[in-house]
Amino acid sequence: MSIFKQKIVWIGTLIVLLVLVVFGAAMMGSVLGAKPKEVPVALVVLDQPAELPGGSTLAVGEMLKEKLTSNAQLPIIWTIVGSEAEARKGLDDRQYYGALIVPADLSSGVASLAGAAPKPATVKIIANEGWNTQAATVVKQGLAQAMRLAGAELSKTMLERIGAQTQQVSVTTASALLSPIVVQEEIMHAAGVNNASGNAPGLLTQIMWMGSLVSALILFFAGGAAMKAGSRRPAAIVWQSIAGIVLTGLASAFLVWEASSWYGMELADATQTWLFLWLAGAAFYMIQSALLNWIGMPAMAILVLLMFFSMPMLNMAPEFLSTASHDWIYAWTPLRFAAVGLREVMYFGGLDAVSSNATVLWSVGGGFLLLLIGSGWKRMKPKTQALPTPEAA
What we know:
single chain; transmembrane; transmembrane helix; membrane; DUF3533 domain-containing protein; ABC2_TM; two-stranded antiparallel sheet; 7 strands; abc type-2 transporter like fold; 58% helix
């Protein structure tokens, strides 16, 4: 039992608990409490009211619009747009995770259920899978459920109208009443084959961060060895920067080749994916190398914690995150800008589709490059010389 009298045991226990708290917060804190809220979706209502026998009017489109926009249970924030083309442009521009298109003949299709030749109209749900698979799935499931409930209500209403006119319902009419609104689902910017269900950009970003970190460590030690061999510190730091850019370029090219050749990841344009991944890797390298050269090995704790806190958020839509996770980590972590920019390259048309994320990476990489080069003129602590012993004197 004497082992429990050792201070190292109790200090070690506190360290273990601290590690569990920190990494638990990093890996679980932002994920376990995540839930969708205010997911942006476009709503297009083209429906024209239909006249019913007896002079009454049926406006299903307006009814759907009112029910959907007032439904607080749907985690959706609606944007009313005037046409399907406008909604699709918003999906291309990453403004919405999905769209609901209500056609012009919806009311007339529902009204036809009371006639001899029922022709239900089709409502279209478009999911923007490439922007975020998780959010697109929420949109599809939520809108499909809303359409089922609306269809059930319309079936009841139309059945009451038909029952007031006749006690017999044809098989064709009864079948149409089961699905008064036909739902058609469409995927825009679909992720390719073996893309981890659309999570490949986040996965590649994580791997590239690790590859850049290893590169930064290798060249940090190599620069130190070169200075011990007689190289001047400013020159060693400059060559460390150049070598890092070259090495991350090679690493990103190998990663793209590995993902496509070894694991069958479908890439719309492998070259453009490589170029953006190179930019992300170079920016990561500059951050890591600058911190290592200014702080030394303690910088590794910062870099590892940054990676672990960022990883769970890379494949999540920002609308799913808590306010603390979004504002304290997601809003500024460089891994997020790389993952989102890579998503734009891979699923939205290549480098031409990259928005401000590339600018942020260029700016961050350039700023830390200046810090890295500036470390070449950092004052080093003078080496203390051992005092001669009396015997030597």
